[in-house]
Amino acid sequence: MKAVFIIYNQALTEKIEYMLEILNIRGFTKWQDVMGTGSVSGEPRMGTHTWPEMNSAILTIIDDNMVDVLIERINKIDAINFEVGIRAFVWNIEKTN
Questions:
Q1: How far apart are CA 47 and CA 54, in angstroms?
Q2: C-alpha 29 chain-centroid distance
Q3: Tens place of pLDDT for every residue, the chain, 97 residues?
Q4: Residue 39 backbone zone (phi > 0: left; psi -120 to 50: alpha; other: beta)
Q5: Which residues on neighbouring strands pair with residue 86, listed in sequence order?
């Protein structure tokens, strides 16, 4: 099992939700109004007058064989909407109940 943490500009919400539905990824936790800035080229998302945009984040736990499929879809969304911003991070899940 892998944990995938996806952080994205709220403008991408419908695309992300649709992607999860198409991939039949049902279990996830979502946070709205997440603040931060990208480590490479992202602009701040702070919900302020200067930086008004906001991010959302999703954490999902999926089977190992789904990781590459999900990351490929995320990369496609990023390629089309590069200036908007999306990132995904993957790590191992050692135990679950």
A1: 6
A2: 11
A3: 999 999 999 999 999 999 999 999 999 999 999 998 877 777 888 888 998 899 999 999 999 999 999 999 999 999 998 888 899 999 999 998 8
A4: alpha
A5: 8
**Distance between the two ends of the chain, CA-based, in angstroms?**
12
Structure-block tokens of residue 61: 């736990």
Secondary structure (H, E, C), 24-74: CCCCCEEEEEECECCCCCCCCECCCCCCCCCEEEEEEEECHHHHHHHHHHH
Residue 9 · residue 87 · CB < 8 Å? no
Looking only at the bridges linking them, the beta strands covering 86-92 and 29-34 are unpaired
